[in-house]
Amino acid sequence: MALCENSCPLHMNIPGYLQLLKEGRLEEAFELTLRDNPLPGTVGRICYFHCQMRCRREMVDDPVSQGEIHRYLADTMYKMGKEKEIYQRLIKEKFSQTGKKIAIIGAGPAGLTAAYYLVRLGHRRNYYDNHAKAGGILQYGNTGLPLPKRRTKQRT
Ligand code: SF4
User: Fold this and answer.
1) What is d(CA 59, CA 65) in angstroms, rounded to the nearest whole number?
2) pLDDT one-digit tens code per residue, 17-71
3) What is the pTM of this model?
4) CA of 58 to the centre of ligand 1 (A)
């Protein structure tokens, strides 16, 4: 495993989506990104970028900014109107129903991510949150993070 992949908390398949991007296969690069990171447009703006701290490219010039690549892919798919279609493709792969229903406390980014994986594994989920809309701190908090408001709402 590459150092950047190993240091990423999501162990994203960085060489995989970079190769697809290099070949101009944007939709597939986005799909591969979503397999490890269901909120790339958000994570690409707020991650602590552990991967950059281990990027060997720094020995040549600058570390590769994976966050910018997540944002580029998410924003491009959104602009092309392809985002939902690609999420739907992944939803179709979900395992058959297990009959289990799992409670998720909080519908913030962590809760939404957990729900994504649980649904893919065939479980049902139920959110418990004080707020009417999903998004948690990104929707209701004053984070000071560089998140476009419209996009944050889109993710709910
Ligand atoms: S930006 Fe964050 S989520 Fe993305 S590859 Fe780097 S460490 Fe992982």
Assistant:
1) 14
2) 999 999 999 999 999 999 999 999 989 988 888 999 989 888 999 999 999 999 9
3) 0.85
4) 16
All domains in the chain, ordered by first residue: 1-93 (1.10.1060.10), 94-142 (no CATH)
> Are 28 and 76 in contact, with CB atoms under 8 Å apart?
no
Which residue of 13, 33, 47, 54 sits with most ligand 1 atoms within 8 Å of its CB, as the best mutation to test the pocket? 47
Q: What is the pLDDT of residues 77-127, one digit of tens each?
A: 999 999 999 999 998 899 999 999 999 999 998 999 999 999 999 999 998
Using CB atoms within 10 A of its CB, is residue 112 exposed (0-12), middle (13-18) or buried (19+)?
buried
Ligand 1: lining residues by beta carbon, under 6 Å: 8, 10, 12, 14, 37, 43, 47, 49-51, 66-67, 70
CA of residue 135 to ligand 1 center, whole Å:
20
